Write the structure tokens for this entry.
Amino acid sequence: MPGRAAGPACGGSARSRPEPSPPHRSGAYDWIPGPRAGATQRVSEQIADIQRSSRSVSAGIHATSEVIGELDAVQTLIGEVLEEQVEMAKAFETSR
């Protein structure tokens, strides 16, 4: 409405909050006050653990995929050998 000050509902701010300053000390989360710093550090460590675990799982899936590819090649070769044995058995039976 004209003549009214912009409040929170209108996109304004009832009071301004200072932005947190970026890390400037030795610890990456020293600038975060109180227990939130520890919680932030724990979350960061958990994310790093999940990323390491994901890389490990991905490597395992890749290795498994390679083994499956090798097994497919062996299975194809076995199938070809069995077909050849069937043909040899048929030839043996007809020559008798």
Summary: The CA atoms of residues 71 and 77 lie 10 Å apart. Helices lie at 35-95. Confidence is low (pLDDT under 50) at residues 1-13. The first helix runs from residue 35 to 95.
